[in-house]
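In the current project phase, we have settled on a layout for protein records. A sample record is reproduced below.
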Amino acid sequence: MKIATHTLGCKVNQYDTEAMLELFENAGYESVSMNEDADVYLINTCTVTGTGDQKSVKLIRRIHREHPSAHIIAAGCLTQRDAKRVMLPGVMLAIGVQERANVVTLFEEAVRTNTPLGATASVKGAKFECLTVMRHEGKTRATMKIQEGCDRFCTYCIIPYVRGPVRSMPLEDVKKEAKRLADAGYLEIVVTGIHMGSYGREIGAKLIDAIECVCQTEGVKRVRIGSLEPVTVTEEFAQRLTQNPEICPQFHLSLQSGSESVLKRMRRRYTPDEYLEAARILRKYFPNCALTTDIIAGFPGETEEEAEETRAFVKKANFARIHVFPYSRRSGTVADAMPGQVPEEIKKQRTQKLIEIGNKLELEYVYKTVGTYEEVLFETASPDGGAEGYTKSYVRVRADAEPGEMKRVLIEKTEGAVAIGRAEI
């Protein structure tokens, strides 16, 4: 049987999709692209925003319309949150954020009995589910999920209700998984999770311990860290990072707003000044590192003055890249019931202004690489010849090379946010 997959949402979701796909392949299924006819379509849904909900449901309906005889598996966060919404015509299995290791068995049982099956058990008291993935993007960079769940309960976020409590991959399993990926030929490992700062809390370990385990694995050339929060970045944390030359000096430091009053309403556990202190620490130990972040525009009650505070903060923090999202109401969250919901048109305007600032900052950051030598891990062939890949600070580079190579490149110019260089022979 042939199976095709599609992922909506974050890198953790992408990891979970690949893990489930490999389980199907190990059971004898043939993986094909979404553009091909398949017997089974696995859709890993997202519910972080209303757009994620809509895209998930729309895709399920489209697949059934175009492939009425195929079976559909609706997995992931929207399924966990609202299984009835995804139990649409064609869906044979609705599986949430647990039991994914049993996805093949559950699916085949549903097919055998010709009865659509829901597998969305409560996440309360859930254990860390050790899934493994051998195939990753470009066969050069692998994502490694070491943490699941969140208990921060920010007022806008549905994820703690969907992904459940904090649970962590034991350090021994971290070492084994990193070794397995290195032995498979991956040069870069991206360490990720739902709330990275909570890693190890329930098993007597710290995030830096897990990161060091990955860095110390023979064959791993680069380690990139997923999203961090300012409270995680201490002098000790940054100092220990510097002892590992494999660390990529690109840090995604979650912000959401540059206004102190908005951060309080969001129930974020830091102030703008504390955020800047975390950025200062990272730049102290990693000069010229790339700081990237996420921002929500138009949070309930956000005034024009507060929006301007965020725009000014973005410039002051001098990010290398920002991801901007208009606030999306999530039923069941505190923010959904807050007064002062910002009109959609104003949210769009504020989002666009932040995107324009972010684009300018990104171009400036990339341009600073001109005239420098950068280590580039090439991932894909370029349609213009040569190959494209990324520096340790995640600047996209095009040069004369082959996918899978790691080369030292002299950056000679930029084309937009892409650096163009000459690879050393």
